[in-house]
Amino acid sequence: MTPNTRFVEPGAWEALQASFRWPRRTRFNIAEEVCERWARVAPDRVAMTYLRPDGETRDYTYLQLSRASSRLANALAARGLRAGDRCAVLLPQTPEALLTHLACYKLGAIVVPLFTLFGEDGLRFRLEQAGVKALVTDRDNLPKVLAIRDALPDLQILYSIDERIAGTFGFWQELGKAADRCATAKTGPDSPAFISFTSGTTGPPKGALHGHKVLMGHLPGVQTHHDFLPQSGDRMWTPADWAWMGGLMNCLMPSLWFGVPVVAHRMTKFDPDHAFWLMKAQGIRNAFLPPTALKLMRQSNGRAELRSVGAAGEALGADLTDWSSSALGTQINEFYGQTECNAVLGNSHTLFPPRPGSTGKPVPGHRVAVIGREGRPLPPDTPGEIAIHRSSRSMFLDYWGRPGVKEDKFVGDWMRTGDEGVMDADGYFWFRARADDVITSSGYRIGPTEIEDCLTGHPDIAMAAVIGVPDEVRTEVVRAFVVPVTGQGSDDLAAALIQRVRERISPHVAPRDIRFVDSLPMTATGKIMRRVLKADAP
């Protein structure tokens, strides 16, 4: 006997959308859903395989995760962590990171996932904003925390997973002294679960507070994006950090809910050749691969045989989707969402034919529209702003510590994403640009995404970012920053790139300036920070 793993039944996409109904639940807890229910009926089922940096692997069953997370919950409670308190996780993909999530959900505490890439200033800002009381980290990241600890009066409980250091508690030593049974808090769908900070593409990061229902909100999308997860032999991996909504809720937690084993692995820096090796060595059948990773993998000669691939975070472009069929063994199902409300649009090539460049159709259970300035849905083929209806189960509860700011993001019942797009007559959505990334030139409104896709389609270009720079005559002109595959640019290559855009898209969107760079400014989630390029533009 196994728990139910069918959230969406196979069928025609339109019929699924029309017939879908969210389950009515007064009690809902992420730890119960992704771990405890499996531990009761399939205790020896493998939930996670941890591939250590030294190449050794260890399997963790649902029962082992249940017992260990209960020990941690009891240890944290003994140290004073209570329901509603915030506990930060500053770890790469490790068993301890997952255990901390599960333990906090059992207590009714609120998790604050943090990227290990953050420096002292980035950590201090988020820890202060969230009023974090407990933090779990490792030896690599502990020095950053210790350096700012005096500025964090709320931080009272500090765990190190590697060894006990002065001022910290030893993670595994504490677990060894605690009981392995813990009653799960009686949380509801809207009870706070975690705070996910926005990536800061449009300004200072904000802490989006999500309820336990956010897991439920992701299940229809993850199931359809991965062509009806779970299937026999499915095994999931992502290089995305679990501190990002993509790694946490597009991969880790839904996979555990579906009973699909997750492979966890620390990657200090993404290596495309290592990624291909890992997928083969670990028998990966399903992967969530952010566009930045896919662009780097395209430069490799590696090959994989996957059953399903999901991608989100940045628009993919036709070249990447064409490449994936031969290099990965399947088409990429691109999907769309934001930190505040994720996995609401997507593709599923087993249900309807993807259209290159489209982010797909609304996922069953989610209402998405393109709206005008007054907040009303626009007719097909009319450009506007992509918006998500308030009723979405993956909708955030509020911005932590920012009263009133949430409603500024809404017009009526529609959450404005800040993304310009269009819906065609067949219901496919097309992302054009962040509203603040749109370039106004000679009366034209130009989105950077299509130009960037064209530039990276050139075999000598690894990555590209496009911005508008002020121009007295045209208001703005297009400037492109490109990262050459070889690291070297030339006047001939610049001319070829400009001509490529003129011929393949239109002369009026062609860059008037090409800048060759070694790298592009990116958020910790791999999104290009065009605002940084704009700020630095002369």
UniProtKB/TrEMBL annotation:
E.C. designation(s): 6.2.1.1
Top-level taxon of the source organism: Bacteria
Record-given protein name: Acetyl-CoA synthetase
Family to which this protein belongs: Belongs to the ATP-dependent AMP-binding enzyme family.
Annotated source species: Rubricella aquisinus
Positions of the AMP-dependent synthetase/ligase domain: 36-400
UniProt KW keywords: ATP-binding, Ligase, Nucleotide-binding
Enzyme's top EC category: ligase
SUPFAM superfamilies attached to this UniProt entry: Acetyl-CoA synthetase-like (SSF56801)
Segments forming domain AMP-binding enzyme C-terminal: 450-527
Molecular function terms from GO: acetate-CoA ligase activity; ATP binding; fatty acid ligase activity; fatty-acyl-CoA synthase activity
BP GO terms, sorted: acyl-CoA metabolic process; fatty acid biosynthetic process
Pfam families, A to Z: AMP-binding (PF00501), AMP-binding_C (PF13193)
Classification via InterPro entries: AMP-bd_C (IPR025110), AMP-bd_C_sf (IPR045851), AMP-binding_CS (IPR020845), AMP-dep_synth/lig_dom (IPR000873), ANL_N_sf (IPR042099), Mitochondrial_ACSM (IPR051087)
PANTHER family in alphabetical order: ACYL-COA SYNTHETASE MEDIUM CHAIN FAMILY MEMBER 3, ACYL-COENZYME A SYNTHETASE
